Amino acid sequence: MFPPDFARDQVLTHTRVGDFVLDPFSGRGTTLLEALLQGRNAIATDINPVAYCLTASKAMCPSLKDVLSRLDELEALWIKAEMVKCRSDLPEFFQWAFCKKTLSQILFLRSILAWKRNRVDRFVASLVLGHLHGELNRSPNYLSNQMPHSISTKPAYSVRYWRKRRMRAPLRETFGLLRDRAIFRFRDGVPPLDGRAVLCDVRRAGITLNRYRHQVKCVITSPPYLDVTRYEEDQWLRLWFLGGPPYPTYSRVSRDDRHHDGGAYWRFLSDAWRGIQPLVHQQAVLVCRIGTLNLSVDEIVRGLTATIRETWPKARLAGDPIVSRLRNRQIAVLHPRSIGCKREVDCVFELGAVARAF
Q1: Neighbour tally for 174: CB within 10 Å
Q2: What CATH code would you report for 4-49+196-235+261-350?
Q3: 44, 89, 165, 197, 274 from 52: Cα distances, Å
Q4: Residue 238 CB partners (closer than 8 Å, separation 6+)
Q5: Which of 224, 230, 242, 278 could pair with 258 as two cysteines, CB 3.0-4.6 Å apart?
Q6: pLDDT of 130-173, one tens digit each?
Q7: Helix (H) or strand (E) run with residue 283 in it
Q8: CATH 3.40.50.150 domain span(s) along the chain
């Protein structure tokens, strides 16, 4: 994971206006957005629906006028539907996580937004995902009871936490909050170009995005870290909003969501680079931020370099790896005993003129 300034610096350092930039593990769409803002073409993939929704909403951004108009329409439909009654079959977690009226509005949006095929609805869905839960003591712009913003804590743990502290979910007018957040998001304008984001396994990226064959001049990405987090579990509430079940799941979205074994992890990354190889220009640069819980910096660099050279035998490190400074993690708000990532390392590779044929 990396902040916008990191992606922007890498885009400006390694590409020119009009070049293609790829992020095969798009996450929140940071690389894609920064590339578009700098006049580059940008494509991205991710296997997680939450990541896809967030990235695709930045890749093809609607107008603020259309978003506000759609929110007005959605609110009118919700009122006409007599404020959708809260479903009794939802687990106890939801009654603690959201006040009754807010949950009704969230359920309505969950049922009606065509986020997979409509760019306006997808943008609205991305706004909901960004504000579905968070820290009440930091911002009034979250819809839930006290939770970390970065991850969805486990249902039973959350209920115990709220019950022990007698914490009740605040009343939030969802449509008003989304209007305000939409205006905030558009305050700096929109990218001058549209990008392309697809929901797919990285190992099929070269097939799914075949029209961009050999066009990518720079890959800027951050793969899932080794033995650090499980995105499917940690994003279960956002996945629920996009149509998933109302509880955490494991290996339903991806079996490569979290690797504990270094051997399996490096094999996965080798497969990932092989998957994007058809898209990459013969003189491309690959920028990778990678993290781990237990490996040393030298072990990380050796493992990553080996995976890249399996696809690009002439690849070489351009400069020394940089160990990045870890920022405070929001999970500490509800789960202070968590360990998380200990090391993040940034590596830049010049891939060389020849890729291995597969």
Answers
A1: 25
A2: 3.40.50.150
A3: 9, 28, 36, 7, 21
A4: 50, 129, 132, 152
A5: 230
A6: 999 999 989 999 999 999 999 999 999 999 999 999 999 999 99
A7: strand 280-292
A8: 4-49+196-235+261-350
